[in-house]
Amino acid sequence: MKYLNVDRRDLPFCPGCSHSFVLEALDRALAQNEADPKRTVLVSDIGCVGLSDRFFDLHTLHGLHGRSFTYATGVKLAEPDLNVVVLVGDGGCGIGGHHLLNLARRNVGVTVLVMNNHNFGMTGGQHSVSTPHGGLTATTPAGNLEYPMDIAGIAAAAGAGFVARKIYNDSDLSETLAEAIRYEGCSVVEIMEICTSYYGPRNRYNKKAIAAYLEESGRPTGVLARRDRAEYARALRSLWPETPKNSSWPAIETTHAMDFDGDEYNILLAGSAGMKVISAAANLGLAAIRCGMWVSQKDDYPITVQSGHSLSALKISKRKIDDLGVENYDAALCLSKEGLKEGRAAIEALPDTAWLVLQKGLEIRTKAQVVACEFKDASLKLSQANRMAAATGLLARLTGVPPLEALERTVTEIPNSKVAEEVAKALQASETLLESSGFSSL
Amino acid sequence: MKHYLTGADVIARAAIDAGCAFFAGYPITPASGILAAMLHELPKSHGIGVQGEDEIASIGFCLGAAAAGKRAMTATSGPGLSLYSEQLGFGLMAELPLVIVVVQRMGPATGGATTNAEGDVQFARWGTSGGYPMVVRCPVDIEDAYLQTIEAFNLAATLRTPVILLTSKDLVMSRQTVDPARLVKPEKVDVVLADPKDSGFLPYRRKHSEDVPPFAPVGGDLLTRINTSTHGENGLLVKEPKLAGEALNHLRDKILSRADLIESVEANLEGGAETCIVAYGGPARVSREAVRLARKKGKKVSLILVRSLWPVPEKALRRLVGAHAKILVPELNHGQYLREIERLFPDKDIDSLQSIDGKGIAPGRIVERV
Fold first, then answer.
1. Quick check: A181 and A85 in contact, CB under 8 A?
2. Could you say which DSSP state residue B264 is in?
3. A247 has a chain B CB within 8 A of its CB
4. What is the pLDDT, as a whole number, of residue B1?
5. CB B344 within 8 A of CB B318
6. What is the phi/psi pair of residue B122, to 5°?
7. A199 touches chain B (CB under 8 A)
8. What digits encode the pLDDT tens for the residues B185-228?
């Protein structure tokens, strides 16, 4: 079977260009494998190599410079039974080198043919990542100061399952390409070429020079790696359950009731990373939904993970919420310096009808009724991660927003039973905290 | 019965309900929740979810999967959209359906990763070279995010083009009550496939410039050529001005001729109102609240919410703005949609309300300006 639909003389390359040899070898390799053209996709991008795909009667996908690797990965992950072959030059391995590394590392079942002619032929013979040291190009007039990337070596080091280096006129090139295409995982074949318009004549780089260059740089030809590793598209499918099934969102039924003056009750939770502020706010929110309320929770924290402030703005509303922002709060729970710093303006603006649950020692001017407690009291056995949960219990006892029973019920449904137990203990500890504060329950 | 969910939860579920079978993305705040949800959920429904080595690769994987016939989605934020730029062009030029969720955050470059903003409005429209129309949808609230995610998949399939779902940190990362009764699930619309028995199949064949060419996936029974170079109907590169011009006009015409399908505007007009608020995204939600407050105070005011940002829903806006003398445009940027409103209504009194510092616009500020 023929896949190449023109004679070598009708290919658009310069006279003597190695690309023509390689495309003919690819044609023979596909024939040796009896590849089904309908199940074979040729992916290419920019440069002289990118002119190749139209001459093959296969599926072709042609895109942006160096990104062939990404499109080919997508095709293979979508349809693992296809033969997916990337044709790329040394230029593509420069601009898309990161993708080549990762294609090799994941061992996606794509075959990559790198036609390495040491320069950018299409754009006038500029140097590429594979131009030999000292090489003369349009952009290295004094000889290349950079050192050439070992494309096959890098592919092998990155983990490609099958790696070979060949010369464009090797008599067994098509056999190597056929093996590469048959190989289930990622296969990379670097093919040493001559650019007959630029790099070749400028540097007297001919067949002999290729051999000398490979010898000097210690880069052997032949198969460099042949490994038994799981192909990634199939590995992904090994995670699938036998029958496809979507999961469903946790349902919250109305089991309790609550009320407050006005339409909205807004709570600010202000603490530090590690205090589980967001989880505590979510539990308050869930408890309020359980009481038929609408809730929104807007969280604020810096980009750091286990340090810095953590704030949650919780809006509890009797009707559907449009604006997620909160301007005025009815209650605030503030347990750390960082929380106080970030929440200061909102806490200072609390009206005299509002409640402020405050860690003892934190100082702020406010009109709110301040419930100062020692959350760090050793006898309470509250770890840092459970202090904000205790504060929510305190709020529930003081205000009934939300009712303590609704909050306790919510906590029983925390999926992680150990966490559920800890939070339930924190809610119990809030009784002691309330007693010590001098305020009494609702 | 209710749920308590983030926008990321809802968008991920909507994507799967829309038939999304492929997702690739790269971690970036505030879009990472969508990546995590998709990678957890997709395998359960026998879909493929992967994390790429960077944003360029992630959207490239999606384009490859789309070329192979999968309904694909990716999600990122502004800095990631910058990296998507060339690949957006791939989607436009190769005519591949793809949904791109953009979760906006503050500022250019690394900006403010955890701070809300909506500054990528013009960038979403003009985010790739060439200047061809990009379809951009913008959910108003969390229920609308569900609906518009599915609509985005349907539009992408109908038009064979990438569709951007433009959201922001507040919508995607905040948790809210979700009433399942309010979630609307439109019928799935599939890409029109080429007849596998068509012996004269051409990958980009069209009778009229605005026709959407029937699609054949790579790896299918019809040999096809997907090409991002200016191509003729056969998918091969063309340079001849007539053919190249036709190919490029087609990319514009297929979008602009379907304004009625793409455009979506929600209106709450009040007879005798002098001011009309035109809003989208976060300020759209706030404007609903502001209109309620203003009317409570006895002020007359109309509200128009733009769900389809690009192309600009000109017909609907002209009809709905009608006789209102004043238009108020609240935005979380330096007035990026304002210029469109000014272009459409050169004779109206146009007022701009802007916030870029992350604090947003409180309803009271809108009420003051009505």
1. yes
2. -
3. yes
4. 96
5. yes
6. -75, -35
7. no
8. 999 999 999 999 999 999 999 999 999 999 999 999 999 999 99
Share of chain B above pLDDT 70, in %: 100
Q: What is the pTM of this model?
A: 0.97
Convert the pLDDT of each residue in A67-93 to its tens digit.
999 999 999 999 999 999 999 999 999
Q: pLDDT tens, B146-171?
A: 999 999 999 999 999 999 999 999 99
Report residue A247's pLDDT band, with 50, 70 and 90 as the boundaries: confident
- Give the percent of chain A with pLDDT over 90: 96
Contact with chain B for residue A245, Cβ under 8 A:
yes
Nearest to A78 among B70, B173, B363 (CB): B70
Q: At residue B291, does pLDDT exceed 80?
A: yes
Q: How far apart are CA A19 and CA A203, in angstroms?
A: 19
By Cβ distance, the residue of A74, A98, A285 closest to B62 is: A74
Residue in A71, A241, A286 nearest the CB of B63: A71
Determine how β-strand B265-268 pairs with β-strand B175-178.
unpaired
Work out the angle at residue A182's Cα, subtended by the Cα atoms of residues A178 and A185, and round it to the nearest 5 degrees: 130
Closest chain A residue to B365, measured at CA: A327
Cα–Cα distance between B78 and B60 in angstroms, integer? 17
Cα angle A155-A161-A164, degrees, rounded to a multiple of 5:
60
Measured between CB atoms, does B111 come within 8 Å of chain A? no
Q: Which residues of B touch A77 (CB under 8 A)?
A: 22, 48, 50, 61, 64-65
Among B29, B278, B44, B306, smallest CA distance to B168 is for: B29
Cα angle vertex B236, ends B231, B238, to 5°? 50
**A333 token code pair:** 């729970």
The one-letter code for the residue type at A280 is A
Please give the Cα distance from B204 to B211 (Å, whole number): 10
- A205–B contact, CB cutoff 8 A: no
Residues 6+ apart with CB under 8 A from B251: B92, B93, B95, B132, B133
Residue A347's CB is within 10 A of a number of other CB atoms, namely 24
Q: Tell me the pLDDT of chain B averaged across its residues.
A: 97
Q: Within an 8 Å CB–CB cutoff, is residue B18 touching chain A?
A: no
pLDDT tens digits, one per residue of A355-404: 999 999 999 999 999 999 999 999 999 999 999 999 999 999 999 999 99
Size of interface A-B (CB pairs under 8 A): 219
Mutation site, A322, A326, A414, interface B, largest B CB count within 10 A: A322
Distance CA A339, CA A349 (A): 15
Question: In this predicted structure, what is the pLDDT of residue A440?
Answer: 83
User: How many angstroms separate the Cα of A67 from the Cα of each of A103, A151, B90?
Assistant: 11, 16, 10
**Nearest beta carbon to residue B44 from set A70, A245, A302:** A245
Task: Answer yes or no: are the C-beta atoms of B78 and B119 closer than 8 Å.
Answer: yes
Residues of A in contact with B22 (CB under 8 A): 74, 77-78
Q: How many alpha carbons fall within 13 Å on the CB side of residue B277? A: 32
Are B60 and A37 a contacting pair at CB < 8 A?
Answer: no
